Amino acid sequence: MRYLTFALGKGRLASKTLEMFEKIGITCEEMKDKDTRKLIFVNEELKLRFFLAKGPDVPTYVEYGAADIGIVGKDTILEEGRNIYEVLDLGFGKCRMCVCGPQSAEELLKHHELIRVATKYPKIAKDYFYNTKHQTVEIIKLNGSIELAPIVGLSEVIVDIVETGSTLRENGLNVLEEVCPLSARMVVNQVSMKMEQERISKLIDNLRTVLTEA
Ligand code: PRP
Questions:
Q1: Which UniProt keywords apply (predicted)?
Q2: Count of domains in the chain?
Q3: For FRET with 5, which of 29, 128, 154, 182 sits at 20 to 30 Å CA-CA?
């Protein structure tokens, strides 16, 4: 039996994933050590390997087959646009991709003004404004703290993730439009899905059972 390799998005997604995997009997003790600098973890008994990667790199590892399976946010899947199968909504990491800004920007959106949109997700923002709303905008790519942009006058609105809404509230911004709901998803390499169909389907079925019981 060959190893099945999992790429997990670093951080909260990874720990939530491991919690869920434990419920179906998949454990990886050495991965729980928070201080470890190790990059790859093995469960010899089950012939599984796990590694942690930056979220946006997970679909890349999976598309190229360096990982058979990935756990990553829907935002990253949409933004990266890789050739991979999305097979399961894991139900955690729930949040929303939204257009946000000061209340005054609502009028600009309504009248399809040529506004500037700051975002970490240019592909999602472009798709939303051009293909869904048919509004021409200027997209400005940023790498973090997106909420700053409308405050300091870099853009009129932002496209960003909203979870609790507290970042927006504390900065005097509002959700103006919802782009799409988000959560953690399982993705699979297209060749692995055929070659390891039995093991992967069983894994998906077991996770589905846990999800329906929750
Ligand atoms: C994300 C997102 C928002 C915030 C939303 O940022 O970009 O800024 O979380 O969460 P809330 O609605 O619960 O306040 P993250 O902390 O990942 O960092 P970043 O701003 O550097 O992207």
A1: Amino-acid biosynthesis, ATP-binding, Cytoplasm, Glycosyltransferase, Histidine biosynthesis, Nucleotide-binding, Transferase
A2: 2
A3: 182
Which atom from ligand 1 is nearest to the alpha carbon of 144?
21
The predicted structure's pLDDT at residue 196: 97
Pocket of ligand 1 (CB under 6 A): 120, 144-147, 160-167
Ligand 1, residues 157, 160, 168, 179: which to mutate, most atoms within 8 A of Cβ? 160
Model confidence at 32: pLDDT above 80: no
Question: Pocket of ligand 1, candidates 162, 168, 182: which has the most ligand atoms within 8 Å of its Cβ, to mutate?
Answer: 162
Task: Give the Cα separation of 84 and 17 in Å (integer).
Answer: 19
N residues, the chain = 214
d(CA 126, CA 179): 11
Identity (one letter) of the amino acid at 104?
S
Which pLDDT belongs to residue 209? Answer: 96
Quote the pLDDT of residue 88. 98
Considering the domain architecture, whether residues 56 and 21 belong to the same structural domain is answered as yes
- Evaluate if residue 193 carries a pLDDT over 90: yes
**Is residue 67 within 8 Å of 189, Cβ to Cβ?**
yes
pLDDT in tens, 122-153: 999 999 999 999 999 999 999 999 999 999 99
Q: What residues contact 147, with CB distance under 8 A and at least 6 apart? A: 100, 158, 160, 167, 168, 171, 173
159: containing domain: 95-182
Closest C-alpha among 201, 204, 183 to residue 77: 183
